[in-house]
Specification:
Layout (H helix, E strand, L loop, with lengths): L4 E5 H6 L4 H15 L5 E5 L5 H5 L26 H7 L10 E7 L7 H12 L3 E7 L3 H7 L5 E6 L13 E2 L1 H6 L4 E4 L5 E4 L2 H14 L15 E5 L3 H12 L3 E6 L2 H10 L3 E4 H4 L9 E4 L27
Parallel strand pairs: 1-2, 3-4, 3-5, 6-8, 9-10, 9-12, 10-11
Antiparallel strand pairs: 5-7, 7-8
């Protein structure tokens, strides 16, 4: 009988985030090679190492580690037993399980692992969805190039940078200049898509139509003023979608040059955030915040300056 070999990569904790891809690559390769020789427990520390605790059954780990309840962690990045069992469905994870996940910074707030892993389970798909806390998206994708990692979602702040990492980009995503969904083909090539614009715009249209959400008439956005705060990947997607629906687009951004460039690409107008203070809304206008302001942990934050004429307009 073998005693398990505990291999915990504390090197990562000591020397910083830049060692994470190396640590995880060594860990997963080591687990695969040793699983038929000696039981091995492989863990990487801190939030970026969370996936090593979730995916250990996939790569032959002897066991993983979790805490019984939240707030009892002895180190960051430790999930609860409830999360492993109920969110990530760890008992369903095996060597043939496909891995999907969310690339971003931050990602800890996201509900996607719960929603999508549950969806996989309910539909009989052998897959798991995990969070990837990523600093450099190009470096990340160069390490996670195995077919085991079948696809990715992408959020702030990488939606624009990841376009250059894709072997192929869908024409709409290319027009937007941002990607939020990446699929790995059997040949290993990454194909980028943008579903932000359809998801966000259709949700706004449905809310405006109310009980007539399935009405196939012209878009209720046609001719409306559509003000977008932010000129990053999400802002680009909404600007593209609003333009396609016939809305009058205005882009407001902290950096005016980025607002102007995006506004020009969709035939709209640009404002600085300072100019937004004196902006007077039209009746029925749409105001969309696509910045990180208001996200966890500062959920009460708002990009709207106090006292602005837009203070009473609901943010989407």
């Amino acid at each position: 009988m073998f005693l398990p070999f505990i291999y915990s990569l504390y090197t990562y904790s000591l020397f910083g985030d830049f060692l994470l891809p190396i640590c995880l690559e060594l860990l997963f390769c080591g687990l695969k090679k040793l699983k038929h020789q000696i039981p091995m427990i492989g863990l990487v520390m801190r939030e970026r190492g969370l996936i090593s605790r979730i995916l250990c059954p996939k790569f032959g780990g002897y066991l993983t580690f979790a805490v019984l309840e939240g707030g009892k962690e002895s180190a960051s990045g430790q999930p609860t037993t409830s999360d492993l069992l109920n969110v990530y469905k760890i008992r369903r994870i095996g060597t043939d399980t496909r891995i999907y996940g969310l690339i971003g910074k931050p990602v800890g707030y996201s509900k996607s692992p719960f929603l999508l892993t549950e969806a996989f389970s309910s539909t009989g798909v052998n897959a798991v969805y995990v969070p990837y806390l990523v600093d450099d998206v190009a470096d990340f994708l160069s390490v996670y190039s195995s077919p085991d990692f079948a696809g990715f979602s992408c959020t702030i702040p990488h939606k624009e940078a990841i376009v250059k990492c894709c072997s192929e980009v869908d024409p709409i995503a290319k027009s937007i200049g941002a990607v939020n969904t990446i699929v790995r083909r059997p040949d290993g090539n990454l194909v980028g898509y943008n579903t932000d614009y359809t998801g966000a715009i259709s949700a706004i249209e449905d809310a405006m139509r109310g009980s007539h959400a399935n009405d196939s008439s012209a878009s209720p956005l046609s001719g409306r003023l559509f003000v977008i705060i932010g000129a990053g990947g999400a802002g680009k997607a909404l600007a593209y979608g609003a333009k396609e629906k016939g809305a009058k687009v205005i882009i407001a951004n902290r950096t005016f040059d980025r607002a102007r460039d995006l506004a020009m690409s969709v035939g709209g107008d640009a404002l600085s955030l300072a100019e937004l203070e004196s902006f007077h809304p039209e009746g029925g206008m749409i105001l969309a915040n696509t910045t990180s302001i208001g996200m966890q942990p500062n959920i009460d934050g708002t990009p709207l300056p106090k006292g602005t004429g837009l203070a009473g307009v609901a943010l989407t």
